[in-house]
Design a protein that fits this description.
alpha/beta, 10 helices, about 35% helix
Length: about 300
């Protein structure tokens, strides 16, 4: 379990005090996946570095269950990643696990297992410099998971990956989770597979503004109406919705509802046109992200 209890991280200069994290409290149970969502500079990396022990905090309390059992209990893959491309794949990975305290015989066994899982067995004796960018990212992921950490922190793990590679990384994240690993990750790639997370944290300027399951968070936000019709006269629709909703409809094809029954009222006003799509739904992760960051009403 990971617990933050009113944690603050402060940076001071002559003229101001800046909170990188402000009064942050949350709990993550063992084996859960937490998706941490926020803009650049919101405090995600600061939080990750505090959990991994790289960075101290100024006040509050951080508890990490079982962290003292072994030095490699927490594995952190930072957003800014570097790799020594001069080495040989299996030698490089084996050395990394050796630095984490694993016996070399065990390290070699785990490395070959994970190379197979990542479909990279053929590259075991290859120079890292010869690998594609995608395979180098696989290599970095292997270095983070091969020692079976209790806690795995992934900061923007999908950065620069294509759709197929991203799907593959999700598959590996699921596999690691099944082994009982607690996983925290941040991403700007707000795709459907994010629903695999048990919980989400939306963080804005160092403060946690929403925390919980996707369904719980969605229930705090207004519903959306998706409407699509070849019979629909846009000018007629715009008579009944605000300027802000007109702009939203133009850009996203949906309308924010103050109350769910407004969908029926609007449909009646439009003279009941044939609709290819007329759907009231909860806001998705991207829309919630826009809302908590003030881009549109929640």
């Amino acid at each position: 379990m990971i617990e933050f209890d009113h944690v603050n991280k402060i940076y001071k200069n002559k003229n101001s005090t800046i909170y990188a994290l402000k009064d942050v409290s949350f709990q993550i149970k063992k084996g859960e996946i937490l998706g941490v969502i926020g803009r650049n500079g919101a405090g995600k990396t600061t939080m990750f570095k505090i959990i991994s022990g790289i960075l101290s905090y100024d006040s509050g309390l951080v508890k990490i269950e079982n962290e003292a059992k072994r030095t490699d209990a927490i594995s952190y893959l930072p957003e800014t990643r570097g790799i020594d491309t001069r080495g040989i794949v299996k030698e490089h990975l084996t050395d990394l696990l050796g630095y984490k305290g694993m016996k070399m015989s065990d390290a070699r066994k785990y490395i070959m297992y994970w190379l197979k899982e990542f479909e990279m067995e053929e590259y075991a004796d290859a120079k890292i410099s010869s690998l594609s960018k995608g395979n180098q990212q696989k290599l970095q992921f292997i270095s983070a998971v091969a020692n079976n950490p209790e806690i795995l922190i992934l900061d923007e793990p999908f950065s620069g990956l294509d759709v197929i590679a991203t799907d593959f990384f999700w598959k590996m994240i699921e596999k690691v989770k099944k082994q009982g690993t607690t996983i925290l990750f941040s991403t700007h790639n707000l795709q459907d597979k994010m629903a695999l997370c048990e919980n989400f944290m939306f963080i804005v300027q160092g403060e946690v503004v929403k925390l919980g399951s996707l369904e719980t968070i969605q229930n705090d936000f207004k519903k959306m109406l998706e409407i699509e019709s070849s019979d629909l006269n846009k000018e007629q629709l715009f008579q009944y919705i605000s300027k802000e909703e007109q702009e939203r409809y133009e850009q996203y094809g949906c309308i924010l509802l103050e109350k769910e029954e407004e969908a029926r009222v609007l449909f009646e006003k439009l003279g009941r046109p044939y609709c290819e799509k007329l759907r009231v739904r909860k806001q998705n992760i991207e829309e919630i992200f826009r809302g908590v960051n003030g881009q549109w009403k929640m």
